[in-house]
Specification:
Two copies of one chain form a homodimer. Chain A is an alpha+beta fold and 265 residues long. Chain A contains ten helices and twelve strands. In chain A, the strands form three sheets. The first copy, chain A, has a four-stranded antiparallel beta sheet with strand order 1-8-3-6. A four-stranded antiparallel beta sheet of chain A has the order 2-7-4-5. In chain A, a hairpin with a 2-residue loop joins β9 and β10. The longest helix of chain A has 27 residues. The radius of gyration of chain A is 19 Å and the shape is globular. The N and C termini of chain A lie far apart (43 Å). Chains A and B meet through β5, α5 and α6 of A and β5, α5 and α6 of B. Chain A binds a DNA duplex (30 and 30 nucleotides) through α9. Chains A, B: It comes from Methylobacterium oxalidis. Chains A, B: GO terms for molecular function: DNA binding; DNA-binding transcription factor activity. Chains A, B: This is Crp/Fnr family transcriptional regulator.
DNA sequence: CGCTTACTTGACATTCTTCAACCGCAGTGG
DNA sequence: CCACTGCGGTTGAAGAATGTCAAGTAAGCG
């Protein structure tokens, strides 16, 4: 029986064998993108160690700074965003548990956008060197990171479509479908519901809508029996109809792990 | 004098010494991102060889296919785009001379967007292996490609802001500012004007506006004395005012070549 | 010359924003 | 315990921005 050998295993391995996946959302995410060895998982646990709590609506990286570390979200929701001079802001992407804000952007003269929390978050700061070390020693991890980046780019393309040619209700429906799948992938959703402590103003900054219109659009989604909200949770009541409304195609979130045409580089 | 030794040089070097830059837009672009040796330039010229002409409004890569080659634009304007079921489409990015559509996206089960020409184009098809070979043997080229990618991501972020929170006139003004700078960087602009054979429908697909509204917005830009159009050219008459109107910050197009925090990877 | 494609215009409909007020809840300090 | 405060959500009314439809014009091309 497994329990007989349990005392000899380290914690991540034991968790992994008992329930099939790690409690570290970074491991859970990357496991879905490339096969990981126990050593790979271990280094990822080291990267995730030392996480700290961050309040909601707080900046982690300010626009114009030059960070020397990446940030890994372990709990809660953070985002990249840009401000305009007139005070409007645009949220560029959500960072969910397991998502990493890589500081490659340091190549630019200044970082051109900010990183901030939406809800309260648990965030690990990963020094650049630690990340490079992990990637150099663990090719599977490097591979998984590359694939994560490719998915991230696909998500960004979908956001462009959202802002460019979907109606208000379609934008929000599409966003909710995306978030459900991404959160399911890291074990942060139950059935079709998840914690969603994002304000309507922030939803507006995400979807390019005013908070008033977000409010009315949410009411319409509720009226149609597609979602329910409350207690900082979002419950998707009718996923098939929500997906149909948003014309949501899940493919872009799931890279084909089998066919790998780009191991080198 | 230079001409005395000219006969002993190969063509790219001679061009390079005579007028300070290559006629290959890929070389011109990457030169601005990393220092290149003569061997680097030579390999880039090889990549650009064998270009073929493509008609306007033609697909180079169709949505759902799995390309094994990258495409390099040498002349004209191409774009990535996505279609919606109802026929609307969103253009995701412009590929100007020197821009490369890398096929990393083959990681996804299917490529989730199409690549097509806007104007007539001269396009080189670069087999995956040739690209990998060049990158492996020429670290400076690899470095420049990485930086090009980072700039591309910054451009995408700016497009998200465009679609999410700028008005019609600001969106178009911002796009024109971006295109001017990008085209200047590869020598495809004279003063503040450039060839711009993009239809108003396509401008609408780019900016998330209807063609009618694009038309009226262009009229407004002309009326304010900011631009002039005709003969498939765009002339920017008052760049400072256009930039002010768009709140255009050029920084994101110009990575800091001096401070390189990420040579490894 | 006739065809096609792109551009232009006007009238009208719709979507979404803005403004302003109000509600309700949770935290805070007296 | 209660009043106060602040934030987030909700509502209504009015207006601005943008889309749609339909028709007409101009320019390039075989």
């Amino acid at each position: 029986m497994l329990s007989m050998t349990g005392f000899a295993m380290n914690a991540p391995l034991r968790r992994s064998l008992l329930n099939g996946h790690s409690s570290n959302p970074l491991v859970r995410k990357l496991e879905g993108l490339a096969p990981l060895s126990e050593a790979d998982r271990s280094i990822l646990d080291q990267l995730a160690a030392g996480a700290r709590l961050a309040d909601p609506h707080v900046d982690l990286i300010r626009e114009g700074s030059a960070p020397d570390a990446a940030f890994l979200v372990l709990k809660g929701i953070a985002c990249r965003y840009k401000h305009r001079q007139d005070g409007k802001r645009q949220i560029l992407s959500y960072l969910l548990p397991g998502d990493l804000c890589d500081p490659d952007i340091a190549h630019l003269s200044r970082i051109d956008h900010a990183l901030g929390t939406l809800s309260a978050c648990s965030v690990a700061r990963i020094p650049r060197e630690a990340l490079l070390f992990a990637v150099e020693r663990h090719p599977n991890v490097a591979q998984a990171f590359r694939r994560a980046k490719i998915v991230e780019e696909a998500v960004t393309r979908e956001w462009l479509v959202n802002l460019g040619c979907r109606s208000a209700i379609e934008r929000i429906a599409h966003l909710f479908c995306e978030l459900l799948l991404r959160l399911q992938a890291v074990g942060f959703a139950e059935n079709d519901s998840f914690e969603f402590p994002v304000t309507q103003v922030e939803l507006g900054d995400t979807t390019g809508l005013s908070n008033v219109h977000v409010n009315r659009t949410l009411q319409e989604l509720r009226r149609q029996g597609l979602i329910a909200t409350g207690q900082r949770r979002l419950i998707i009541l009718d996923l098939p109809r929500l997906r149909a409304l948003a014309e949501f195609q899940a493919g872009y979130l799931q890279p084909a792990v089998g066919t790998d045409l780009c191991t080198a580089h």
